[in-house]
Amino acid sequence: xxxxxxxxxxxxxSERREALAQYSGALFFSLSLGITLVAYPLFVVGEGRxxxxxxxxxxxxxxxxVLTRWQLGSLMRVVSNANVITAAAVLKCVAVGLLVLxxxxxxxxxxxxxxxVARAFxxxxxxxxxxxxxxxxxxxxxxxxxxxxxxxxxxxxxxGFIAERSFEAAFATAAAVALVSIxxxxxxxxxPPFARVGGHxxxxxxxxxxxxxxxxxxxxxxxxxxxxxxxxxxxLDAAGSSEFLxxxxxxxxxxxxxxxxxxxxxxxxxxxAPGVARWCAVTLAATALVGFEFHVALITAALVAGxxxxxxxxxxxxxxxxxxxxxxxxxxxxxLVGVARGLTLSSAPFGVAALLVLxxxxxxxxxTTVLIAPAAxxxxxxxxxxxx
Length: 388
What we know:
Layout: H1 12-46, H2 51-75, H3 81-101, H4 105-131, H5 137-163, H6 167-185, H7 202-205, H8 209-228, H9 231-238, H10 243-260, H11 272-287, H12 296-324, H13 330-354, H14 360-378
Helix pairs in contact: 1-2, 1-5, 1-6, 2-4, 2-13, 3-4, 3-6, 4-5, 4-13, 5-6, 5-10, 5-12, 8-11, 8-12, 8-13, 8-14, 9-10, 10-12, 11-12, 11-14, 12-13, 13-14
């Protein structure tokens, strides 16, 4: 099986209500996130602060997100993961609302930190909710990712449009959308907090073959997404693409990743680990090309292939957890793969930056090889022990 069985939720009607509430909340949360993604850095610079300061604040939010994920396993042994999802929507609303009230540095720092906590809470809580549900994990995770992608495609465009007229209006809109996202989270089934059992330490969990595969997969996903948001646009610019075309190509790559997740639905059991290895190899080959000045059509094709592969891997990472980890350790295992992804999401661009003396193409090639190749080499089905 690739899904759990929470008490108190049974029957097709309850499952449909649960799914609708979860995906609606994800759509609104992602839409709010997308609006802020564009408006926040532009607001920082527009207030007379440097681009470096904008980067520092965004980096702070990413660091807080990783640190928060690290503690979520412990938190979900105290409160229900569904309460964590609701708290995320509340925190997102507060974080953006602060910027409507004040443009000061204290508000900017607090907002960045709260957004990092909210993102960690929301995505980890939702993944755990799916693994603990009756729904098949691969399809449910793929649908969650697709819903989030829709919000992240619409949000930035809407945020940029509103921010051109008023930053306050953009933040007020993002806060209002986040407020709306609270409502569906209140309709979610509240499974009990995880029981306190032995074996929840991260080093102990890493002895589990499924967790190992999930971590390798998440490292590869984080590397791909980190480069897509940093040096992929730079590589496309070096290849002579316009800003508009760069935006379209990145959007297409994100869309390919969302669609690719559905291809992972039939991959279950001992096929999960070889699937991770195979598609990580595709991701590596595709991503390694983007730093070189090839024709934009070739780079676009590579990004689409890499996007489909990454979408598959992202779903398979959680499938590996759901199949091989006992139910009471699910929260810790999902948290661990989230931490792995978060670390490489930020370290991949830093790694390329440190290697730029070699040139952009070789730097991207080396960084992707170091971060993605291990998943292609070490993911296999040895010692694969399904737990449910």
